[in-house]
Amino acid sequence: MRLVLDWDGTITERDTLHMAIERFGDLEIFHVLERQIGRELTLNEVIGVEMGTIRAPFDDVIEWLLETVTLRPGFAELVDAHDPLIVSAGFRELILPVLRREGVRADVIANSLEADPSGWRSTFLEREACPVCGEPCKRVALAGGGPFAYVGDGVSDRCVSLAADRVFARDGLARWLDERGTRYEPYGDLHDVRLALATRPSA
Ligand SMILES: [Mg+2]
Ligand SMILES: [Zn+2]
Fold first, then answer.
1. How far is the CA of 172 from the centre of ligand 1 (A)?
2. Which of the residues 3, 53, 59, 147 could staple to 26 if both were Cys, CB 3.0 to 4.6 A apart?
3. Structural domain containing residue 149
4. Buried/exposed code over 82-120 (b: 16+ C-beta within 10 A; e: otherwise)
5. Considering the domain boundaries, does residue 99 fall inside one?
6. Ligand 2 ion: Cβ-proximal residues, 5 Å cutoff
């Protein structure tokens, strides 16, 4: 069974978009907009506006990111064991340098962005709207690829986690699944996920 991982807050210990906006952008806009996801605005719209509050040079942000971002323990071992696919609602430009720093190779599906002194511009992968949530979500990105186990933590993982054959959840995703009464396996670090995949049969 394929293993699919979210990036921010799942592989990384903190959400790197949140960190970058906190450091270089406007966190007030971030907090106002986060409350509107799924109401007035789609997730992509919110991320696009938030990234637009960053005006710093690209290299400054990447240098800071590489010094600051920490990954959840067990990531390299999990990649060695399962060759997972990373599907992110974030951006290749912010993910690939961190993978390079770690010396890890993995396939990444993510959006792209361009630094601009008047506000960074996001370009989102074109996908059909999901029949379940109505947004071009990760479920659509994985459709037709066969069974998969999914590891996530947040809003962008909600819809896709309901389509997974096995779900590992923490933080907001775990609370959301609890509220729905949907089963999942909790994890602390990524060693937990690797050990669970090795020792327990899928449900
Ligand atoms: Mg996340
Ligand atoms: Zn969906």
1. 9
2. 53
3. 2-13+71-199
4. bebbbbbbbbbbbbeebbeeeebebebbbbebebeeebb
5. yes
6. 130, 132-133, 137, 139, 159
